[in-house]
Prior knowledge:
Layout: E1 9-14, H1 16-19, H2 27-34, E2 40-45, H3 51-54, H4 58-62, E3 70-76, H5 89-92, H6 98-114, E4 120-123, H7 130-141, H8 143-146, H9 155-172, E5 175-177, H10 179-184, H11 189-192, H12 202-219, H13 243-252
Parallel strand pairs: 1-2, 1-3, 3-4, 4-5
Amino acid sequence: MSYIIKRPRIILFGDSLTEKSFSFGGWGAGLANNYNRRADVVNRGLSGYNTRWALYTMPEFFGDCTKDNTLLVTLFFGANDAAKPDGTPHSARQHVPVAEYKDNLLKVVDQLREKGIQRIVMLTPPPVYEPGRKEAQIQRVGAAEAAKLELDRTNEYTKQYADACKEAAKQADAVVIDLWTLMQGEKDWGTKLFNDGLHFTVEGNQMVYDVLQRTINTTYPELRSENLAPQFPNWDAIDLADPASTFKEAYSKS
């Protein structure tokens, strides 16, 4: 059975929807489990970040990436860019105009392509369940204060960013998953898939994992986990009398 010595990586780049994806039942944790021993799934999610700020992190996150050591990158921003400029002051600071958001996504893709990374899956921001956002607001500041406040995000406003993400993907010839549309096709999506109108429940994470893994398997069949070699020889292929010889041979082929 073939094997590898240097394990490649899959990088998840995004905001809190990515940062939280390694939590219990998270979509990133599902990917890590599926690619166990075959590729390191690296979480590069930054809670609260928009695309404007994300661009500054790329030298650190992708500085040593090449087409050989990085199999795929997911690009999942927009939930914070779509914070309303006239919403709550705390969230309004995250707002990025939709035209700039689209341009920033294209800049990210261009920088990845300059590294030789061609497999990029973009995910649109998901829908916003507005009753859930209002309840989260009440929990944060109290009912009396929340009654005076606008919502920080709305579903219709976020749609502009989902559309811009799809346009950027088309322009960049990249793969895109339209979560804004897909998730609203689920019965009782607002309470089933989101715990605060914005972040995923376990069921929401499962849906993201399922559609993402299916997209990877279909678009890049060479990245199906069963098509990737495991790292190091299987234990039963190790020479019991002289294990060093097994690994000497392994390293000589790397």
